[in-house]
């Protein structure tokens, strides 16, 4: 296997909670209203330093989606998923976007989901059924 080259981001960043590898910028957050089986999740326009798992169809609260799990390149931990295909017209905006599970990342201020329990506002945009 070749040498690992990780992208270092500048600004307010989300990092892997296991190894602190940079994953995304706070300015790339599209929505903080997503949910996963472990709690809150954020939809990002762009994430870095991840590898894609196998594509699979998953039935979520918002319908059927083809997704691929995303893994941190630093430690191999699963940190979320990427939307490859949305099968419902109203969900097409998710295609090509990634979700980071809040419990698996540190926020820009160094906080994690265990410490900072943010109030739930609005309904769930996505969730495994």
Automatic annotation (TrEMBL):
Query: Which residues does the UniProt record annotate as the domain Yippee?
Result: 12-109
GO-annotated molecular function: metal ion binding
Span of the signal peptide = none
Could you tell me which InterPro entries the record lists for this protein? Yippee, Yippee/Mis18/Cereblon, Yippee_fam
Entry keywords, A to Z: Metal-binding, Zinc
What's a Pfam family this protein contains?
Yippee-Mis18
What the record says about family reads: Belongs to the yippee family.
Protein name according to UniProt: Protein yippee-like
According to its UniProt entry, this protein's organism is: Opuntia streptacantha
């Amino acid at each position: 296997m070749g040498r690992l080259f990780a992208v270092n981001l500048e600004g307010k960043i989300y990092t892997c909670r296991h190894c602190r590898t940079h994953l995304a910028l706070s300015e790339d957050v599209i929505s903080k209203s997503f949910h996963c089986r472990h709690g809150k999740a954020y939809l990002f326009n762009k994430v870095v330093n991840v590898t894609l798992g196998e594509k699979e169809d998953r039935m979520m609260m918002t319908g059927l989606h083809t997704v691929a799990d995303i893994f941190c390149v630093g430690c191999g931990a699963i940190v979320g998923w990427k939307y490859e295909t949305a099968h419902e017209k109203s969900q097409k905006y998710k295609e090509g976007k990634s979700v980071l599970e809040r419990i698996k990342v540190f926020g820009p201020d160094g906080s994690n989901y265990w410490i900072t329990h943010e109030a739930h506002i609005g309904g769930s945009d996505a969730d495994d059924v």
